[in-house]
Write a sequence for this structure.
């Protein structure tokens, strides 16, 4: 067995009895079965089609501790994660451990229920059974198994039917220096009731140069006519690894607006799975990644149209400099019976150095009638004629390049609301771009 | 101000300019006319410094310096402006932001003080007013989604804000209706001054009804084959470029 799995499974035996929910028969079974499946399958390799471009060989040789005993004591300056327009409810986890002192769960607006997973498991655990008693069948789903076996905490968010929660709920996941590298597993569940609206900011950041592994699994269930506005900001430390899986299911007339920003980590993998289950369900997704040095970021986006007149609009931008590697896989499937579907995918990528690489794969499969669909993907350099135009007006080459790169990315942020938040996010992104580019 | 001597230029291995000579003094307006493929746009691009043009012979002097030695941005700072035949769309870059960055980059290079956004906005609004342009132009992304006419107006607006010493207009009149044409001409006429020169490249005589040139040159097959005053443009309009062909044939007939 790999060093990686051995380190985690050893720790599992030690920590099992302490894990919230231990002793619940159905949860014990689910955890055990996922753990056993994991032990026999190991981590996916590049022979798995969906992991073709992301090798886990280095990760598989590393040992991780399973808990950070000092997680509740790290000094974290709230300014680290402060965001404009995010002065509502907040839940903060440091190395996977809830920090009540940094969170703000008092005076929640009517209709919004936010609880740590650990608390729900000690109360109405049965309400989570449908989510947590899952078995993951595919060998490539190792991290979902890992999460199902190990997750001890996370955010459980429920919005009552009709409630309009427009002040964003701020979920903060902080990776911080521990005495040894640790792996943490977080499970988030969102249930947005009929006709309800919810705004969420999912915020990942690193404090100090830790090399931890975060494993985050989230499910978002949008009931009829529900709307979710989700902004994900991933600004983890440059040595961190982050594996994420986000599943969205949309009932009739439900609407998902997702804006996604990937700036940090040494290694990131994010599977985003969107299921349009009800008529006229709509998903609008905008994302951008900016990579440098040896960063490796792999986004796997899939949208399944399974009902009439469903629509999706996917827009992703990527920039890679240094020896970085970006992967974007955008798969849209319009299943039989999902007539009248409208699907759009645009993925454009910019390479800023000869050693950088971006692999883009748009896939469109259609089994229904009266479908409108378009997809396009490009990988290229800065537009020479635009560069010349800017220079001919007096902008030095370096400044012209920076301006064009910023503009390229800005399109992916254009839909973030409110404006104050968009400005802040734009600044985060610009700070990651080369400020002065040599010729 | 500008002295082009015996300029030979190749593009993608093909010789386009074949010994072009032209002198332009401050205060003058020169019109360059000629048939398609004569090398008119090549002249504009080579003056602005676009890549992909290989000078095989000849020289371009600008205020006594070798212009061809300068980067495009340095030419701009030295007062050279090209109004593009096909202005480039730059999504995501705000017109005002871009123009202020360019304006200040030029000033910085010249050792002049940069303008803050309030000062700049004041200047820009004055220019808009003079050119009868709408405020909306300031808020849009550079040329994105602009009609052909809007793009050309934006070129003239940029020229008005940047106040170059030598402005080259590359077929700015092509595809314009009469109102847009007048606006372009207004923009040029407003800027005419004893310190400033214009090279107006055009296929048609029409623009020259509104921008009255001091000199008209006919560019054909890579060099200037005839120069004269504004009446030359009228003659071309009447007789067409075919007249040149005949004249050239006559010339080559007498040549040894």
């Amino acid at each position: 067995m790999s060093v990686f799995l051995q380190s985690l499974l050893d720790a599992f035996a030690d920590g099992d009895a302490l894990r919230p929910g231990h002793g619940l028969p159905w949860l014990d079974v689910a955890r055990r079965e996922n753990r056993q499946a994991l032990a026999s399958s190991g981590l996916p390799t590049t022979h798995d089609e969906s992991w073709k471009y992301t090798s886990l060989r280095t990760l598989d040789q590393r040992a991780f501790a399973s808990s950070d005993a000092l997680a509740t004591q790290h000094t974290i300056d709230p300014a680290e994660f402060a965001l404009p327009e995010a002065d509502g409810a907040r839940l903060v986890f440091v190395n996977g451990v809830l920090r009540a002192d940094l969170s703000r769960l008092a005076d929640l607006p009517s209709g919004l229920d936010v609880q740590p997973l650990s608390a729900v498991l000690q109360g109405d655990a049965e309400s989570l059974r449908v989510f947590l008693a899952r078995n993951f069948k595919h060998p490539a789903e190792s991290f979902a198994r890992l999460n199902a076996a190990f997750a001890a905490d996370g955010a459980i968010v429920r919005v009552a039917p009709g409630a309009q929660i427009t002040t964003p709920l701020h979920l903060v996941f902080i990776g911080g220096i521990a005495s040894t590298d640790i792996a943490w597993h977080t499970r988030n569940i969102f249930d947005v009731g009929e006709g309800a609206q919810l705004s969420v900011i999912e915020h990942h950041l690193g404090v100090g140069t830790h090399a931890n592994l975060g494993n985050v699994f989230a499910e978002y269930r949008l009931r009829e006519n529900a709307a979710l506005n989700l902004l994900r900001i991933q600004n983890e430390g440059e040595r961190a690894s982050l594996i994420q899986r986000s599943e969205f299911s949309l009932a009739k007339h439900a609407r998902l607006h997702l804006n996604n920003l990937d700036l940090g980590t040494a290694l990131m993998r994010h599977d985003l799975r969107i299921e349009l289950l009800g008529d006229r369900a709509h998903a609008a997704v905008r994302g951008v990644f900016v990579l440098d040095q040896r960063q490796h970021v792999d986004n796997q986006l899939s949208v399944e149209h399974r009902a009439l007149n469903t629509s999706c609009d996917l827009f992703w931008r990527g920039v890679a400099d240094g020896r970085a590697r970006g992967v974007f896989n955008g798969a849209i499937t319009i299943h039989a019976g999902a007539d009248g579907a409208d699907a759009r995918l645009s993925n454009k990528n910019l390479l800023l150095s000869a050693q950088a690489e971006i692999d883009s794969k748009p896939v469109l499969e259609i089994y229904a009638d009266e479908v409108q669909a378009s997809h396009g993907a490009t990988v290229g350099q800065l537009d020479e004629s635009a560069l010349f135009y800017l220079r001919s007006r007096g902008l030095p080459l370096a400044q012209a390049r920076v301006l064009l790169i910023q503009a390229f990315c800005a399109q992916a942020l254009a839909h973030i609301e409110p404006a104050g938040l968009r400005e802040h996010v734009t600044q985060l992104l610009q700070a990651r771009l080369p400020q002065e580019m040599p010729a | 101000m500008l002295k082009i001597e015996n300029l030979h230029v190749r593009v993608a291995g093909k010789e386009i300019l074949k010994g072009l000579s032209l002198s332009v003094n401050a205060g003058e307006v020169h019109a360059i006319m000629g048939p398609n493929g004569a090398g008119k746009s090549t002249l504009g691009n080579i003056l602005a410094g676009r890549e992909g043009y290989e000078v095989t012979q000849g020289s371009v002097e600008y205020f006594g310096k070798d212009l061809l030695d300068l980067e495009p941005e340095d030419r701009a700072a030295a007062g050279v402006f090209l109004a593009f035949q096909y202005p480039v769309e730059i999504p995501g870059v705000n017109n005002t932001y871009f123009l202020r960055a360019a304006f200040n980059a030029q000033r910085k290079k010249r050792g002049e003080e940069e303008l803050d956004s309030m000062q700049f906005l004041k200047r820009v609004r004055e220019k808009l007013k003079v050119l009868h342009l709408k405020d909306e132009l300031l808020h849009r992304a550079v040329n994105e989604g602009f009609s052909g006419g809007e793009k050309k107006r934006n070129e003239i607006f940029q020229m008005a804000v940047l106040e170059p010493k030598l402005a080259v207009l590359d077929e700015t009149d092509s595809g314009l209706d009469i109102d847009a044409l007048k606006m372009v001409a207004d923009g040029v006429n407003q800027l005419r001054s004893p310190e400033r020169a214009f090279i107006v490249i055009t296929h048609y005589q029409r623009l020259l009804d509104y921008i009255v040139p001091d000199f008209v040159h006919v560019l054909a097959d890579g060099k200037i084959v005839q120069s004269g005053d504004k009446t030359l443009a009228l003659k071309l309009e009447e007789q067409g470029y075919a007249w040149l062909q005949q004249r050239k044939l006559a010339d080559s007939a007498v040549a040894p």
